[in-house]
Amino acid sequence: MGEVYVITSGKGGVGKTLAAANIGTGLARSGKRVLISDVYCEFKDMEFVMGFDSGTARLAADEDRQDMDSCLEYEIVKDSVSENLNYLKLISCCHDNGQQDTMKELFGFLRKQYDFILVDCPSGLEQSFYHSVRLADKVIVMTEPDVGAVRDAHRIISLLKSAGIRDYKLILNNVKPLLTELGVCLGQDDIVKILAADLLGLIPYEEKVIASVYKGQRIIEDKDSEAGKAYWDIVRRLLGETVAYVL
After folding, report:
1. Among the four residues 10, 121, 163, 215, which has the most C-beta atoms within 10 Å?
2. Are 243 and 199 in contact (CB under 8 A)?
3. Exposure of 237 by Cβ count < 10 A (0-12 exposed, 13-18 middle, 19+ buried)?
4. 113: CB partners within 8 A, 6+ apart
5. 3-state secondary structure of 48
6. Beta bridge pairs of residue 202
7. Are the beta carbons of 171 and 19 closer than 8 angstroms?
8. What value, to the nearest 5°, has the Cα angle with vertex 140 and ends 15 and 20?
């Protein structure tokens, strides 16, 4: 039975979608069956990051498809990079309580087919955040080392606790050691203490990360990328390895 990881943050632009795509690719490269989802049909960021378009997307085998409520239409799309990685594409959906029950039913069905399901949760505190968290077995909170992002992450973690979720970990993205040394950004120890969260990964700032997105590539596939190596460390930790935190 697979587990659902919801990746969330208090503000947009901190790298949730990139993290889901790269971690999912790494897990799939490690032999795990992985499904990535945006969860809500209005959001298409994951399709862009994974390099999908109408001409390249291939539907996965659909023999086991479950008959879902008519308010939820979806497709399972195969990834072009790894045969173990698929994408849950929601074509149409509604946002009433009935649809939320249908989503939970769908994810319960998908847990039997995948080892990891990674959900890219919309940023902020809109209703879609609460709907996404309802699907989670575990939560990954992403932030950057600036005060505003950490403050927003703290609020998200408070809401997770209020919802009874205690299994969450932290990824610190776009870390710039020099700025930390100069006191411009918060240090990782301070952030971990403020958020009272276990650290899952440290992703260094690297210009080539953005370039990889526009090329339809994933930085974890670049053996010379420090950010790519950091994503591999996260993958190894999710698979149960003990890996030192290095920047």
Report:
1. 121
2. no
3. middle
4. 2, 33, 35, 64
5. helix
6. 172
7. yes
8. 45
Contact 5, 119 (CB under 8 A): yes
In the chain, the amino acid numbered 103 is M
SS3 231: helix
H/E stretch holding 160 reads: helix 147-162
Q: Quick one: tokens of 161?
A: 């606790």
Spatial separation of the C-alpha atoms in residues 19 and 26, rounded to whole Å: 10
Amino acid, res. 121: C
Give the pTM: 0.90
Find out whether 26 and 220 touch, Cβ atoms under 8 Å: yes
Both structure tokens of 231: 């994503």
- For the chain, the residue count is 247
The C-alpha atoms of residue 87 and residue 46 are separated, in whole angstroms, by 9
Helix (H), strand (E) counts: the chain: 9, 9
Q: What are the tens digits of pLDDT across the range 100-152?
A: 778 888 888 899 999 999 998 876 656 667 778 888 899 999 999 988 899 99
pLDDT above 60: residue 65: no
Phi, psi of 20 (to 5 degrees): -60, -45
Measured CA to CA, the distance from residue 45 to residue 170 in angstroms comes to 22
Check if the beta carbon of residue 218 is closer than 8 Å to that of residue 22: yes
Integer Cα distance of 173 and 244 in angstroms: 17
CB 19 within 8 A of CB 7: yes
Question: How far is 243 from 130, CA to CA, in rounded Å?
Answer: 32
CB 18 within 8 A of CB 213: yes
